[in-house]
Amino acid sequence: MTLEQLRIFLAVARHEHVTRAAKQLNLTQSAVSAALAALEAQHGVALFDRVGRGIALNEAGRGFLPRAAEVLRRAEEARRWLADLRGGETGTLRLQASQTVASYALPRHLMRFRARHPGIALSFRQGNTAQVLAALRAGEADLGLVEGRIDGAEFETEVIGEDRLLLLTAPDHPWQHRAPGPADLAQGDWVLREPGSGTRAQFDAEMQALGVAILPVLELPSNEACIAAVETGHGATVLSALAAAPHLERGHVRAASLAFPRRLFHAVTHRARHRSRAASAFLDLLRDG
Questions:
Q1: How far is CA 90 from each of CA 82, 122, 269, 284, rounded to the nearest angstrom?
Q2: Which residues of the chain, if any, have pLDDT below 50?
Q3: Most buried by CB count within 10 Å: which residue of 1, 59, 72, 108?
Q4: Strands, DSSP E only, in 23-154?
Q5: 133 touches 152 (CB < 8 A)
C-alpha cells in the first residue's frame, strides 16, 4: 500500500467517479483505475461497487475511508514537521476562516503575507465557525480565523480584532421608528445566518439572555443573502457591522436601535498539533496589525 494509492482512493471516494478523480489528481483515467485495482488486489478486498459507469464505496470502503484519510493526514503532518526543521521560506499554510472574517478582515492580511513570505503557498477555505473548528480538529487546517465565542479546551486562541452586531431592516420598517422590545423581537420575521455561524451563535445567546424565543422565517448561508432578503422590506436580520457597512452606505438597509456587546475575532490553533513556521509567521503578521 502506498500513499499515492490512498490519495487516489480518497479522490475516487469523494467524486464517486473515476474520470473526475483523475482530473483532480492530474492523472490518466487508466492510471487511477490501475491504482485502485492494485490496492484491492493486494489486500483481497473490494472497496467499491461498480454499477454501469458509476462507482460508490461499499461497506468495506466506507470502513476504510477514515483510516486512509488519517494515514494521509499523519503523513502530511510528518512532512511539514521535517520541512520546519529544515527551515526556510517554503511550504504551504492552510488557512480556514469564517465568512465575516474571510470577507472583510482577512484579504489585506493575505496580500501582506504573500509579499512578506513569497516562498510560502497559501491554501484558503471559507466556512462558518463550526466548520473551521471541525477542520482544525481533523488536521485539515493549520490556522483558523473566526468570530465569536470558542468552546473547547483543545483549542488555543488569540484575539486579533473585534466588531459588533447590528440589527438591520429596510428603511421603512416599523423598528426604524421605535426600538423593539422583547415582545417585538419574539414576533419578528427573522432572516438569520445558519446554525454554526459565529454571528448566529452570538445572536441566539443574546436573545436567550433576554428570555426571547426566536423562530426564524429564513436561515441563509451568507451575509449577502440575509441583506438581500431584508432589502425587500420584509423582516429583520442581525449581521456584523463590517458586513453591513457597504449596504448602510448605499441606504438599502438601516440599523435599528438594539445594542449588542462587541464580539472578538480569534486566531485558533489546535493544541495537540504542531504549529508550523508558516502558521507562526502569519500570527506574527496579524499581531502587527
A1: 12, 11, 20, 17
A2: none
A3: 72
A4: 48-51, 54-57, 92-98, 121-127, 143-147
A5: yes
DSSP state of 190: B
Considering the entire predicted model, what is its pTM?
Answer: 0.66
Burial degree of 239 (CB within 10 A; 0-12, 13-18, 19+): buried
pLDDT tens-digit profile of 116-172? 988 888 999 999 999 999 999 988 899 999 987 887 889 999 999 999 999 999 999
HSE, CB side, 13 Å, CA atoms: give it for residue 59: 0
* Of 253, 262, 250, the residue nearest 227 (C-alpha): 253
Give the pLDDT of residue 88. 57
Count other C-beta atoms under 10 Å from residue 178's C-beta.
10
